[in-house]
Structure formats: structure tokens, C-alpha cells
Amino acid sequence: MNKTIIFLIIFMILISAIIGLVKLFSEDDKENLIVITNISHLSVKGNQIVTDNNTPIILKGAAIEDPSISSREVFFGSNVKDIKDFADWGFNLIRIPIHPEEFKKDKNYLIKYVDPIVKNSEGKGIYILLGWHAHGNPFTGEVELKEDGFPDTQVKTDLNLTKDFWMSASKRYSGNPAVLYSIFNEPAFMNWSEWKNGAEEIIKVIRINDPNKIIFVSGTEWAADLRDVGKNPINLDNIVYEVHPYPSVYWYSKENYSSTWDEHFGYLTDKYPVFIGEFGYQSNSRIENINSSTENYGISLIEYINKKEISWSAWIWSDTWYPPMLKNWDYEPTEFGALVKKSLNQE
Fold it and tell me: How far apart are CA 314 and CA 310, in angstroms?
């Protein structure tokens, strides 16, 4: 046989093998992905999140560490026992914070870090909320400064990278009722009208692939302010508004949390579902934003959540990230973690 023909045959075999490997490890390949079918699809009806049979559900969860930069030797959720221990506390939601910088470095992020958590959650009654852990303004790139005075590049993003992530995620988890989407963690350096336009662009990308999921949209001022939503809501179905009412946000009156919570997000609960996507505290913390206690903040917020029937996710299921809910991986709770655990077992 002609050597040129032999060479071409070998070349074509190699090309076919490479294409096969690329397909095997592609974000679009769902062959090995677990689609959880024994959990209800969620939607929005009025001011409530409801299940398939229109039964209202309150989501109660906690954020875990970004699995790609976890402080643990093996990231939380990579085995079934992790999820069982989590569910045993009474949670029905895991929130996964996905840092833009980490996704940008590894386009197989979802396969490596999210898929195992989805798989191991099967049969546990757990929803998985993917949180694009971006801060700042995706139009200008403006983001808060770290203690060293330089921008926090780990949470910095732009609109294109954000859309790329949600195109990948919504394609991979379309039709999977257990996987939910929080589009942008803490928008800042822009007003609600500006952010609303950006949020609607992102939502349209998601709904190309996954048109019926509920989508969580944070308020401005680092997800602390939903005051302008009432007069200018997102005119799309299945939207949940997200807020992060940490104890020392500058315009929250510590003397009367309830009235400021009413003003900044509580008023919305009469008409729309609201989700407290992050909250937490630590006594005598050097971090001003979380410096508080159970008596001065924690109990008031839990009572407010119960009164308003608000879904929530505490920050954070960790013994090293702040403010930690755990003292160790034997699940011994901190002061904050103890309050969360108690609230889960009040029913």
C-alpha cells in the first residue's frame, strides 16, 4: 500500500480519537450526568415558590466552600456521606459559590466539581443552587478592593464571561429539577435600573437552554438593597429576588433591624418570593460586616424569616471561611451554626 495512503489512514484515526476524547470531556456531554428525577420541579406562583402540585416550599440551606478552592483535602459533596450529614441537619438546599476566576481557569469546572455534588445528592431531597460568585459591575469591571488595596480579581467578571458560564451551566443542567440558578452574587457600583437590564440579558441566555427554571436575582449594593424592585420589577416569569442582609450593612439600623429589613426587601414579600441568599455573623469579628451576635442579630433575623416565610441560605458551611458555621468537620457548630441548626429543628 502506498506510504502516503497509510499515513493518511493513521492520521484520520488519530484525529477521530482526539475528537472522541474532546467530546468525552466536553461540558456538553451529558452521558454520565445524573439527572435527579425524584425531586419536584419548582416554580413561582404569586409570592411563593411552589412544587409540581402547587404546594408552597421554603428552601432552607447553606453555602459550601467553592469546591475548586476548598480548605478541605477533598471538597465537600464529593462523597455521599457529606450530603447525608448535611441533610441530617434538616437542610433542603446546597448553595455552591462559583468564583469567576476559577471557572475562567478551568472550563471543565462543572464536570469536576458540580457533577459529583449533583450525583451524590440524589435521593436526599436536596436542591443545588449554582451561585455565580461575582461582585461589582459586570459592564465596567469595577469591583471592591481587597485589604491590600488591589481589586479582588477572584470575584471580578464581565458580562461576556458571565453569559459564557450560564450558557454552559444551563445547557448542562437543563431539565434537571434539582439544579437552580443564582445569576450574580453581589451587584454593586450601579443602580437597580442598570442592573435589571444586565440581569435580563443573563436570564435570556439561561432560558435558551432551560426555559422553566426559577432564577434568583440579587439586589444592588452587594445584594443588600431591593428598594427599587417594587416599582420596576423584572417582567419575566419564575423570578426570585435575592438579598444578603448581613448585620453591619451601613444603612441597617441595629436598633431596629425589622423596619430597615421591611424597607429594603421585606415589603416585596407581599407580591414576590424573596430569598435570603447569604447571612451570618461572628461575635468579636475583625470583619465589620459580620461582627454581631445571636442576641443582637441572629435571633431577630430568624424570627423575621419565619414571620415572612422567606427561603434562605446561611453563609457558610465551613470551619475556616467566614463566618463559619462549624468548628470542625465533626459538625460541631459555632454560635452561628447552633442558631441555624436550632431553627431547622423548630418545626
Answer: 13
Residue 36 lies in a domain: no
pLDDT for res 214: 98
pLDDT at 252: 61
- At residue 21, the pLDDT reads 38
Name residue, grid cell 423584572.
234
Number of domains in the chain: 1
What are the backbone angles phi and psi of residue 63, rounded to the nearest 5°?
-80, 140
C-alpha span between 113 and 26 (Å, rounded): 14
E strands, the chain, in order: 43-45, 48-50, 60-64, 93-98, 127-132, 135-136, 179-182, 186-187, 215-218, 239-243, 274-276, 311-317
Model's pTM, two decimal places?
0.90
Q: Which residue type, as a one-letter code, is found at position 279?
A: F
Which one, of 183, 195, 66, lies nearest residue 134 by Cα? 183
* Rounded-to-integer distance, Cα 342 and Cα 339, Å: 5
CB atoms within 10 A of CB 298: 23
Selection from 300, 306, 305, 298 nearest residue 281 by Cα: 298
pLDDT of 24 reads 39
| Burial category of 107 from C-beta neighbours within 10 Å (exposed 0-12, middle 13-18, buried 19 and up) | middle
Host domain of residue 329:
41-344
What are the average pLDDT values for consecutive 10-residue runs of the chain, which has 347 residues?
A: 52 46 44 70 98 97 97 92 96 98 95 96 96 97 78 91 98 96 98 98 98 97 96 97 87 74 96 98 90 93 97 97 96 97 85
User: CATH number of the domain that 322 lies in?
Assistant: 3.20.20.80
Is residue 229 one of the residues assigned to a domain? yes
